[in-house]
Design goal:
Length: 132
């Protein structure tokens, strides 16, 4: 019995379609989630390193107070000025802000109106309290 044209076409296209579907499925459900997780992990590490840099800067000014080189008020003023000018990211638009543990905003480079404000009731657009 000689195979028909239709059966030959089906024997070629069905496995090809299944193969394409498996590749698409593996890309969306295996590869993309893994890439996203890896990128998030790298971003967290980068933020951790940047935060460590700022912590070392603050510690340097603390040591200057401990040695008597600077007063506490002058040290706080200088370190806040330094942090205020720090930017990072590909377009240098990412920034640091400083609040204390009560939480009161001590320094924010873009929202100056928040400086000195108590942040315990500050919420994001979804209503989640950001400084608890």
């Amino acid at each position: 019995m000689k195979p028909t044209k239709l059966s030959i076409i089906l024997k070629i296209t069905i496995p090809s379609i299944i193969c394409i579907l498996l590749v698409v499925w593996s890309f969306f459900f295996l590869i993309l989630p893994e890439m996203n997780e890896s990128l998030m992990k790298q971003k967290k590490e980068k933020i951790k390193d940047l935060t460590q840099t700022v912590y070392q800067l603050v510690n340097h000014y603390h040591e200057r107070v401990e040695s008597g080189e600077l007063s506490r008020a002058e040290s706080q003023k200088r370190v806040l000025q330094r942090i205020d000018s720090m930017r990072y990211g590909p377009e240098k638009k990412d920034y640091f802000w400083v609040n204390d543990m009560t939480p009161v905003m001590l320094m924010h480079p873009y929202q100056k109106e928040l400086i000195g404000e108590k942040l315990s009731d500050y919420e994001d657009p979804e209503g989640k309290k950001l400084f608890v």
